């Protein structure tokens, strides 16, 4: 099959590799149709990372089932599916209580199977394959992973109707966080430095937007909340921005409020000074959110699929660019230069 392999320089090289097989009777083989570019993948763009060299990446994908194992009953060949890529080892204490998103072996397992979107085929356990209703496109389905991350963070936050919410970052995760909060009855203000992203945030229903490169975002959030600060702040920028955005988030939140850290850190230690005395005396909660898994008896990815199928969130407008797999390097470059290109969610057709 055709696949995009990570190079030593951090770009991609298209090549022919062995097609995955069905290794167990509960596994499914699917033809990938659309994959998305996640901020996590983008942080590794054009960076030397020996752990990723010659590997297939990508974890936002939808496709079509081509083969199933003998024990599979939830999908059949020809079914259109979205594929969940959060997959633990299945045997540890966390996997046994369905908190597989924090499995110690999560990365090793998921990248061996389902987290290989930038290729023609992918194989994984049947429980990770969700049938798509006819009216939900492959492109819409490729955004389900993004919104599942947001839904998990919202579940951890305890967000309720009429809450005052601030979101830092108007990329796919930040916009998804904003849309879910609005769908739940919250008032939402969102902050970013990219004008095109803020314009889209307005179109998607933000109550207020802040150009944090030109305005005092903390003061704007306080004004939006009547001087108290937000009930919940979602940090959705992550990466290199975190030393700025995390302290900012702790200043936007009200006393006894919550800061939910959704944006990702790079590996290793990261030193970010915070006003710990003020945080403690105000009983501000810092909540770290990692990917997604289950909410009570429900799979969070299935919940997002249901929300899209029912029309409760409209994800189509977040797709700003489309590229075929053989132009994956151009797709990543476009996503990285979002200030110039206006990119939000970049879809790769395969």
Briefly, what is this?
The chain has 13 helices and 17 strands. It has about 350 residues and is an alpha/beta fold. Strands 3, 4, 5, 6, 7, 16 and 17 form a seven-stranded mixed beta sheet that branches. Strands 10-9-8-11-12-13 form a six-stranded parallel beta sheet, with helices on both faces.
- In whole angstroms, the N-to-C terminal distance is 11 Å
Computed Rg: 20 Å
The named CATH superfamily of the largest domain:
Medium-chain alcohol dehydrogenases, catalytic domain
Instruction: Summarize the helix and strand pattern as letters.
Output: EEEHEEHHEEHHEHEHEHEHEHEEEHEHHE
Q: What's the total number of strands?
A: 17
Q: Give the domain tally.
A: 2
Overall outline: globular
Portion in strands: 25-35%
Main sheet record? 7 strands, mixed
Low-confidence stretches: none
The class by helix and strand makeup works out as alpha/beta
CATH fold assignment of the largest domain: Quinone Oxidoreductase, Chain A, domain 1
Classified by CATH, the class of the largest domain is Alpha Beta
Q: Calculate the mean pLDDT score and round it.
A: 97
- Count of helical regions: 13
């Amino acid at each position: 099959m055709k696949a995009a392999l990570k190079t030593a320089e951090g770009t991609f090289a298209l090549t022919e590799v062995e097609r995955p097989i069905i290794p167990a009777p509960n596994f499914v083989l699917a033809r990938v149709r659309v994959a998305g570019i996640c901020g996590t993948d983008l942080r590794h763009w054009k960076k030397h990372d020996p752990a990723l060299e010659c590997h297939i990446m990508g974890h936002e994908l939808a496709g079509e089932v081509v083969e199933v194992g003998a024990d599979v009953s939830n999908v059949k060949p020809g079914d259109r599916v979205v594929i969940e890529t959060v997959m633990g080892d299945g045997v540890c204490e966390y996997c046994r209580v369905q908190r597989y998103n924090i499995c110690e072996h999560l990365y090793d397992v998921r990248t061996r199977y389902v987290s290989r979107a930038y290729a023609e085929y992918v194989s994984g356990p049947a429980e990770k394959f969700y049938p798509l209703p006819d009216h939900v496109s492959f492109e819409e389905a490729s955004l389900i992973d993004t919104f599942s991350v947001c839904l998990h963070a919202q579940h951890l936050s305890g967000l309720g109707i009429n809450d005052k919410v601030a979101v830092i970052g108007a990329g796919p995760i930040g916009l998804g966080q904003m849309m879910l909060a609005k769908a739940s009855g919250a008032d939402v203000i969102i902050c970013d430095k990219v004008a095109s992203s803020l314009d889209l945030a307005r179109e998607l229903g933000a109550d207020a937007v802040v150009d944090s490169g030109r305005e005092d975002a903390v003061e704007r959030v306080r004004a939006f909340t009547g001087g108290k600060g937000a009930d919940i702040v979602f940090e959705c920028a992550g990466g290199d921005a975190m030393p700025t955005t995390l302290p900012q988030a702790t200043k936007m939140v009200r006393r006894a409020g919550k800061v939910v850290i959704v944006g990702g850190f790079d590996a290793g230690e990261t030193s970010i000074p915070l006003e710990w005395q003020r945080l403690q005396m105000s009983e501000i909660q810092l909540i770290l959110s990692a990917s997604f898994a289950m909410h009570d008896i429900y799979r969070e990815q299935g919940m997002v699929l249901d929300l899209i199928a029912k029309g409760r969130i409209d994800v189509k407008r977040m797709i700003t660019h489309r590229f075929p797999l053989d132009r994956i390097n151009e797709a990543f470059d476009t996503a990285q230069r979002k200030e110039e290109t206006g990119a939000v969610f970049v879809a790769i057709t395969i």
